[in-house]
């Protein structure tokens, strides 16, 4: 039992952070940024007794590629926040039905579905596999479907009973 406790404690402190840094080179670069910045990115060289500093472009490119990972991390956090906010939003829309709640549901559902479909298309229609034109067409099709869906839901909310009342009517059947 003590061995299991020790293993769990060590996994939580050391194992998880090592797995994360090994799996994600951006996290590994961030953890060593302070101590290796001068070693990896700025390389001192002396010529005629004058010290010059040249930039290691390969290491700089690795760091700049990690900046796009920050954008994806932020987007993933927003996606998870929206998914989590749907948990109280849906019941509250049924408890307090209104046009504002119908429009909020329409936006939330469409955005949630858009991000999910976009992820699928980007993952499976890679430019290396299907070509750049078909990959861009797939993403454009997702944007078109999302815009059409949002417009249709807005039209339904405006000209008919709304999303919540339509679901309530279906339940009555």
From TrEMBL:
Compartmental location: Mitochondrion inner membrane
Binding sites annotated in the UniProt record for heme b: 112
Residue spans crossing the bilayer: 82-100, 137-156
Chief place where the protein resides: mitochondrion
Pfam families in the cross-refs: CybS
Any single Gene Ontology cellular-component annotation: mitochondrial inner membrane
Any GO molecular function: heme binding
Binding-site positions, a ubiquinone: 124
Database matches in Gene3D superfamilies: Fumarate reductase/succinate dehydrogenase, transmembrane subunit
Membrane topology: Multi-pass membrane protein
Family: Belongs to the CybS family.
PANTHER family according to UniProt: SUCCINATE DEHYDROGENASE, SUCCINATE DEHYDROGENASE [UBIQUINONE] CYTOCHROME B SMALL SUBUNIT, MITOCHONDRIAL
Function: Membrane-anchoring subunit of succinate dehydrogenase (SDH) that is involved in complex II of the mitochondrial electron transport chain and is responsible for transferring electrons from succinate to ubiquinone (coenzyme Q).
Protein name, entry field: Succinate dehydrogenase [ubiquinone] cytochrome b small subunit
Organism: Daphnia magna
């Amino acid at each position: 039992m003590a061995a299991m406790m020790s293993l769990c404690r060590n996994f939580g402190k050391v194992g998880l952070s090592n797995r994360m840094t090994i799996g994600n080179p951006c996290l590994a670069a961030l953890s060593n940024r302070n101590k290796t910045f001068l070693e990896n990115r700025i390389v001192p060289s002396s010529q005629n007794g004058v010290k010059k500093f040249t930039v290691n472009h390969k290491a700089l490119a690795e760091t700049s590629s990690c900046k796009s990972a920050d954008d994806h991390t932020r987007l993933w956090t927003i996606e998870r926040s929206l998914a989590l906010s749907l948990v109280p939003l849906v019941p509250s829309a049924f408890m307090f039905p209104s046009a504002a709640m119908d429009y909020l549901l329409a936006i939330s559902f469409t955005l949630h579905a858009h991000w999910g479909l976009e992820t699928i298309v980007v993952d499976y229609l890679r430019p290396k596999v299907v070509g750049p034109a078909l990959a861009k067409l797939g993403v454009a099709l997702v944007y078109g479907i999302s815009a059409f869906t949002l417009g249709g839901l807005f039209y339904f909310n405006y000209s008919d009973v709304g999303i919540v009342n339509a679901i309530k009517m279906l339940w009555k059947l």
